[in-house]
Specification:
The structure is a single chain. The chain has a single domain, classed as Orthogonal Bundle (UraD-like), CATH 1.10.3330. The N and C termini lie far apart (69 Å). Helix content is 60%, strand content 0%. The radius of gyration is 20 Å and the shape is globular. α2 crosses α3, α4 packs antiparallel against α8 and α6 packs parallel to α7. The protein has 182 residues and is mostly helical.
Length: 182
């Protein structure tokens, strides 16, 4: 039995992805989205100015590189836009007191808000992780803490950017709606 010619494979039309939308967004809109990921206008401009990105990995690599290149002033500016991570609503008041006291000690020592990337930390464990992080980092010398803080900001920006690219429409990634480290 002879077969007739085969039809070309059916390819669905290209549907825009969050990366496509980011690449095509007006400069001010892309910059505003990026500022939700890291509160550094220099970082935001650098990422937005190098669009379009061929894939997510390229965008993340550019975001990492731009974060590594932040000056001390840029880091201070980014830190000024951060706040302490929000605790789950059912957290007991003693935990709030402990976190407030630990953060006050951290801020008095280093002069800025404590930031930590919680990643996939379950909400029930986030308080312990934040408290453990603050307490362990309080023993750092200022230069060592500056390096760790810059790395945590880079990780926060990367996590928030990944969440944005998953189509969430904003950069918040914690289960309670606040951006991690915020």
């Amino acid at each position: 039995m002879t077969r007739g010619p085969t039809l070309p494979a059916h390819r669905p039309p290209h549907l825009p992805t969050p990366l496509d939308a980011f690449n095509a967004a007006p400069e001010d809109e892309a910059g505003a989205l990026l500022l939700h990921c890291l509160h550094s206008p220099r970082w935001s401009r650098r990422i937005a100015d190098h669009r379009p990105y061929p894939d997510v990995e390229s965008l993340l690599a550019a975001a990492d590189e731009a974060a590594y290149d932040l000056s001390p002033g840029d880091l201070s500016e980014a830190l000024a836009g951060e706040c302490l991570p929000e605790l789950p609503e059912d957290t007991y008041s003693a935990a709030h007191t402990a976190l407030t006291a630990a953060h006050a000690a951290y801020e008095a020592r280093f002069g800025h808000v404590f930031v930590i990337h919680l990643g996939d930390t379950p909400p029930a464990e986030s308080l312990d992780r934040v408290l453990e992080g603050i307490r362990s980092r309080l023993t750092n010398d200022p230069e060592e803490e500056r390096v760790l803080t810059a790395e945590e900001l880079r990780r926060l920006a990367r996590g928030r950017l990944l969440h944005l690219l998953r189509g969430a429409g904003n950069c918040a990634t914690s289960p309670n709606g606040a951006a991690p480290g915020r």
